[in-house]
Amino acid sequence: MAKRYELPALPYAYNALEPYLSEQMLKLHHDKHHLAYVNGANAALDKLEKARTGEMQMDLRATLRDLSFNYGGHFLHSLFWMNMAHAKGVGGMPSGSLEDKINSDFGSFEKFKQQFSDAAKTVEGSGWGVLQYDRLTDQLLMAQVEKHSLLHLVNMPVLLCIDVWEHAYYLQYQNDRAKFVDAWWNIVNWDDVAKRLESSMK
Q1: Interatomic CA distance for residues 166 and 174, integer angstroms
Q2: The dihedral sign for the CA sequence 46, 49, 52, 54
Q3: 50 and 111 together in one domain
Q4: Is there a single domain that holds both residue 78 and residue 100?
Q5: Which of 1, 8, 14, 21 is nearest to 186 (CA)?
Q6: How many CB atoms within 10 Å of residue 2?
Q7: pLDDT at residue number 106
Q8: Are residues 187 and 122 in the same domain?
Q9: Residue 54 pLDDT class (50, 70, 90 cuts)
Q10: What is the number of structural domains in the chain?
Q11: Is residue 113 located within the same domain as residue 155?
């Protein structure tokens, strides 16, 4: 039997990210939306396994698409929770080697922040803004992820991501995605991003 995905616990309390992310919104987002992607990925794995044993017939192309979509949602949400924190000193600016890398690749932190914000605010439809590390060129790159597609991120570890599906902000910010993105910078966990960069560069 294939291994199955599990919903990770949040690394903080549901109200820990207030006032930037409300307890109600965070609980719904984690307990309902993220869980739905976990269940969807596991359902696709079940179909694949049953097809291999002859227990059922399936549309392989559709099932693999379901697996990719739901796994992408699970993967990005799992990283999204870790990219945020409630501890004193989060938000603001990164420091150390991460700050140096951002300054080197983007010119300054402010230029990076503006471009990343613009990328997140202008994702067409539902999706994500992401910061990646490209091992081939030793540079930081950002991208807009449509829905949960990870096809273009092959061999590029994701260091930082923001969910701009409406379920990530609508209860608190309604349809004002830009206001949500601007508020999110206050809870970015730069220590987590720095550790991901360090690991990716090894």
Answers
A1: 8
A2: negative
A3: no
A4: no
A5: 21
A6: 9
A7: 98
A8: yes
A9: confident
A10: 2
A11: yes
Q: What is the 3-state secondary structure (H, E, C) of the chain?
A: CCCCCCCCCCCCCCCCCCCCCCHHHHHHHHHHHHHHHHHHHHHHHHHHHHHHCCCCCCCHHHHHHHHHHHHHHHHHHHHHHHCECCCCCCCCCCCHHHHHHHHHHHCCHHHHHHHHHHHHHCCCCCEEEEEEEECCCCEEEEEEEECCCCHHHCCCCEEEEEECCHHHCHHHHCCCHHHHHHHHHHHECHHHHHHHHHHHHC
Residue 2 lies in a domain: no
Per-residue pLDDT tens for 7-45?
999 999 999 999 999 999 999 999 999 999 999 999 999
Q: Indicate whether 53 pLDDT > 90.
A: no
The two three-digit tokens of residue 11, written as one number: 């690394």
Residue range 93-136, pLDDT digits in tens:
999 999 999 999 999 999 999 999 999 999 998 999 999 999 99
Which domain does 124 fall in, by range? 96-201
How far is residue 193's CA from residue 202's CA, in Å, rounded to a whole number? 15
Order of all β-strands in the sheet with 139-146: 139-146, 127-134, 158-163
**Cα(115)–Cα(125) distance, rounded to whole angstroms?**
18
Residue 8: name the closest of 91, 65, 76 by CA. Answer: 76
Q: What is the pTM of this model?
A: 0.93
